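help with these tokens:
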Amino acid sequence: MEPVRLVRACVTLLVFTSGCGAHVPSAPALKIDQALLIFHNQLPTEVEVLYTSDYCYKCVYQNLVRVKSSYNNVSTVISTKFSLSMQVESNDRNAILCRWTQTYEEGGHYSVWILRSDSASNATCIHGVDKGPHNTYLPILVAALSLAVTALLFVVTPYIYRKCRISTFVKTICCQRPQYVLDNDEIHATQVEGSATKVKHKRLCSLDAFRGFALTLMVFVNYGGGGYWFFQHAPWNGLTVADLVMPWFVFIIGTSVVLALSSMQKRGVGRLQLLQKITWRTAVLLTLGFCFLNYSPRDGPLSWSWLRIPGVLQRLGFTYFVLALLQILWGYKENQQKAGNCWAPIQDVTLYWPQWLTVILLETSWLCLTFLLPVPNCPTGYLGAGGIGDDGLYPNCTGGAAGYIDRWLFGDNMYRYPTCKEMYRTTRPFDPEGILGTINSIVMGFLGMQAGKIIIFYKGKNIHILCRFLVWATILGISAAVLSKCTRDEGFIPVNKNLWSLSYVTCMGCLSFLLLAGMYFITDVMGWWGGQPFIYPGMNSILVYVGHSLLGFYFPFSWEMSFQENHWEWLFQSLWGTALWVIIAYLLYRKKLFLKI
């Protein structure tokens, strides 16, 4: 026993002193979210090292490296995005010798020494750090401090000027007046009856700021978010920052539809004219998404063989059309609140019962198709990623019914690189903008319509508006917690952006009501903030989105990076490209140029 312990003590000393002349393989160049792991096999038998990511739900262990016997070394590059579970198996006995779970850090060099154990059936794995990792979050900390200083310059300074009554120009730009029009789709001025003086109405700043905030964050994450995993979409279940922006945008579409069309209906615009308007808008959005944003120059000439039919603008366009149609058919209602009427407190719901009935039928269809539709060679109601997940039992069942319907309708003309492909090693195409997800996109937009109805019905009663926003946020938040069981993977319906699951919609509806309530309070109620700089892209959202999608990966918005071993250049590039589009939106705002469809 003593010689074995002596050897283990010596090797432990080797790990932390890098002595005794052990041969270490040459280190390959590491990139973002990578670390180097070196295995030193001190056993007389060859071993196999396997791994799986802790984020990967019930995933099968995958081969990492094979290390030959008797003092052989093998190095490999591993991902540092999530914690890894590893195990060492003996080839001759096919037995697990040791296992561990660890989070490795970016840029670090680590060693694992596989030693004989006191037990004949096991081995001991000792870890050491050969080279310290990078400070991964230093770039984002510096960026956050820089943005904080910028916010002080552009928010606090104009606020002080307004208080001191030095600059009337800032008063004009910022939303200080409590009066606003309930139409964030049209910029107009109304003639005061009996007077030649034109009174300019103020737009609802909180809605433009919310839209601009969601769009700015969308541009940032589309540029890569500095390479940080939490600024990229979740592999399957769960939420990251990138998963928040699109449902926020859909929510705002619903709110804008109610405010804009209600204002136009109140001015006497007929249903036929409104129907022509929304049909034209929908056709333009679908055309932009189908013919332009799906095109990549590296694919060569336009070809049906690679053309993607679903897409972001296609979903937004179709969602807008359904929501606008609901508003045209059953949307315009006069405020009928009367004392003693028991339905008065919820008339913003009861007066629109045909809309609610339609949305309930749509959601029932989603539930029935998702959980009852038979999918060949897959369990009914399957919501997993397939591939190596769920113990590798359903490799071709990615997305369950949602994926099956899309593959049946579109064939290969859909998204070929879903977020689950890398981690779950899926082989089937899956489109996050598919048919079933679009149903819940409409539900998400309808929650935004409810926010618009609250603003209309309780205009001038800011406390009522804020309280109702908070009530809706509470109801939706509780619903999301129950459906997901407050877990990532174990709920009745997990929160999943790829599927646009019901729990995802309720969760994002909760966050949307909270964020809109906060912005409404500080901009339209208190006048503490004019929405800058987000209000500028918020008022030119189509131009910014289409522009960054078509031109965003060309100079000066981005360039080929030279330093790929850390986040500094990538984060700078992401912030630079995003800032340029905000500046462009600001310049267009100053020139009163707005791209309207």
